[in-house]
Amino acid sequence: MDIDQPIATLENVSKRFDRQNLAIADLTLKIYPSEILSLVGPSGCGKSTLLRLISGLTSLSSGTLNWHNSSQSNQLAFVFQDAALMPWATVWENVYLPLKLAGVSRKSAQDRIQEALELVQLEQVSTSYPRQLSGGMKMRVSIARALVNTPQVLLMDEPFGALDDITRTQLNDELLNLWSQKRWTIVFVTHNIYEAVYLSHRVVVMGTAPGRIVAEIPINEPYPRDSSFRGAIAYTEYYQQVATALSQAITPH
Ligand SMILES: Nc1ncnc2c1ncn2[C@@H]1O[C@H](COP(=O)(O)OP(=O)(O)OP(=O)(O)O)[C@@H](O)[C@H]1O
Q1: Nearest residue CA, atom 30 of ligand 1?
Q2: Distance (Å) from CA 49 to ligand 1 centroid
Q3: Is 203 found in the same domain as 141?
C-alpha cells in the first residue's frame, strides 16, 4: 500500500443535529494508512461525532467521506471509554461476541480469540468474569474484542480516559507495542495532551462553535517510542504546541 495515499478522505464535512446545533462545520481531513491520528479539543467540539461519522454510525449532513479502497470501510472496530463488557459472561465469551454475532461457531472462533487474548496478554484469565478484573484489564478485554475481527482501522473514543495515570501510561505503551505488530490505522480521541503526543503521528486540534479543525501538529518522533521520549525536551515542546493550539481553539473565530 502506498503510504502517501490516504485510506480515507473527509471533504467539507458538516454535521447538523438540529437547526441550532451545527456539531461539525466544513471539516476536511485525510487519514493515512497505519497512522495514529489523535483528535483533541474542548468538550463538545465534535470529536466523538467525527469518529462516528468516520465509522458510518452517523450520517453526514453535507460533504463527502471516501474510503479509497472500499473494503476498508468494512474493517473498522470501535473501542469506547466504557469497556461495556457483559458482566455475566467470561472474558472468552466477551471476546467471542462479535464473532458470534457474525455467525462464527465457537470452534472456528477458538484460534482468533486465543490470538486476540494473547495480544493483550489476557490468555491466563479467559475464564474469569469482568468483576474479577481491574479497570485496565477490562479495557484490554474491550480491545481484544475489537481486534478479534482483525480490523484495519481502530476508532478509539477516550479508551483510557477512566483509568488512573499509571495504568493509562502502561496501556499507551501496550497499544504502541500492538500497533508496531499490526500497523492498523488508529483514530484516537483523548482529552489528555501527553497521551496524544506520545501515541500519535499527528495531533488534530479541534475547536468549538462550530466543531472544526484549528491545527494539525505532526509529531516527528520515530517509533518505537518509550519512556525516553516521555523524558525528552521535544515531548514538552510538542505538549506546548498542542496546548497553545487548544487555547486558541476555545476562542470564538
Ligand atoms: N445524537 C445527538 N443529538 C443531538 N446533538 C448531539 C448528538 N450527539 C452530539 N451532539 C452534539 O454535538 C456536539 C458535539 O458533541 P460530541 O459528543 O461529538 O463532542 P465531543 O468533542 O466528543 O465532547 P466530549 O469531549 O465532551 O466527549 C455537542 O454540541 C453535542 O451536544
Answers
A1: 44
A2: 6
A3: no
pLDDT higher than 70, residue 78? yes
From the CB of 17, is ligand 1 less than 6 Å away?
A: yes
Burial (CB count within 10 angstroms: exposed 0-12, middle 13-18, buried 19+), residue 212: buried
CA of 17 to the centre of ligand 1 (A): 9
* Alpha carbon 47 to its chain's center: 11
Q: Which domain holds residue 129?
A: 86-151
**pTM for this model (two decimals):** 0.92
> Is the CB–ligand 1 distance for residue 44 below 6 Å?
yes
Distances (CA, A) of 242 to 52, 82, 202, 222: 23, 26, 11, 18
* Ligand 1 within 6 A of CB of 190: no
Q: Does 80 map to a domain?
A: no
48 Cβ below 6 A of ligand 1: yes
Instruction: Note the pLDDT tens digit of each residue in 120-161.
Output: 889 999 999 999 999 999 999 999 999 998 889 999 999 888
